[in-house]
Amino acid sequence: MSRQQRAEIDAMVRRPRPEGPRSVEDIRAGLRALMAGMIVPAGIRTRATALGDRPAVLVEPLGAANSGTILYFHGGSYVAGSPETAMSLTGNLVTRTGSRALSLDYRLAPEHPFPAAIEDGLNAYRALLDGGEDPAATAFAGDSAGGGLAVTTCLAARDAGLPVPAAIVAFSPGLDLTRTGRSMDSRADLDPFFTRAGMEHTGGMYLAGQDPHQPALSPAVHADLTGFPPLLLQVGGNEMLLDDSTRLAARAREAGVDVVLDVTADVPHVFQAFAGVLDEADQALERAALFLRQHLRTGAAAPAPTS
Question: Which fold has domain 3-295?
């Protein structure tokens, strides 16, 4: 256990809490600056493309790709982020699985509040299926809000009568806009990134007045996960969002869904992004890649989008 590494990461990301709510522009610039410091693995190539009517980035391993496609959803509290800010995570999944990923540039709040992001996720998945992608060779993955979007997009796909993907991997997912998890208070002093006020600020932009007590906004509290594919939920022990994952895992078990709840002690939100700096990040990504390889059907890789 790399206690010194974990302490150094915590000190690096812990910063004075700003006075009052931050502007959208400040939130977006802050995430870009933070994620620009993450290590993007060598051994990938990227290309701009589109899924449905949204831009996306195709991330492929150098050389021949294995079968399987990862539809990736970036984090950023639904108000910030892009495929580029998540490239360290997406690239690590690609290099460690040998499968390609398509990272979706979904619409952001407050310009495009709920349910715009879910609509974009569902349309992207439809585009993959319409393009000949085998759902048994497709996985959803995402971090933070994108981890929540991986779950809610799967809910939307199931409810629309589409075949669900083969697996879901969620890194530190946001799964409860009601913010009722006990860890919201018990981990408040340990979490170096978030405060309740900050979460309510960004959450309010995404909600835009909608009631958070519904499955598409708070699946950890309200979703019926019947028919879901196997789930891997990875979360840090120092996260205010810890109980988003623990409660969704319980709901998955109740619905008869295979679920792995993977909690790493003393690490912050989306600690996997610190691969190459934090040993636990690399180990967690290896576990995530193994999970994906176990569940994605083998065979020839699907053709890449041409747009």
Answer: Rossmann fold (3.40.50)
